[in-house]
Amino acid sequence: MFYAFDLSLESQEGFDQVVNALQTSFLVKFVIWGVVSALMYHFVAGVKHLFMDMGYFEELESGRHAAIANIVIAAVLIVLAGVWIW
To answer: Which residues lie closer than 8 Å to 60 by C-beta, 6 or more apart?
Structure first.
């Protein structure tokens, strides 16, 4: 990803190469989707932990429900990211 970012900033031709790869290459789209998926899950889990720091969802049952909600919300966001990328 850093290589693509560097290449896109070097020249107009480099930028065009990166744009072409992002639009046509399945592997590039899959890698981007994987990175975005990891960030989405990490963000949702971070929000859950912020609520836990405030004292919510600390009991076993509510913590279990929060974990399930975390996975479901992250899965929905990951699917939406896949639709957006492809």
So the answer is: none
- Model confidence pLDDT, tens digit, residues 40-80: 999 999 999 999 999 999 999 999 999 999 999 999 999 99
**pTM: predicted TM-score of the whole model, two decimal places:** 0.82
AA letter at 20 = N
Q: Is 42 annotated as a binding residue?
A: yes
DSSP letter for each residue of the chain: -HHHHHHHHH-HHHHHHHHHHHHH-HHHHHHHHHHHHHHHHHHHHHHHHHHHHTT-S-SHHHHHHHHHHHHHHHHHHHHHHHHHH-
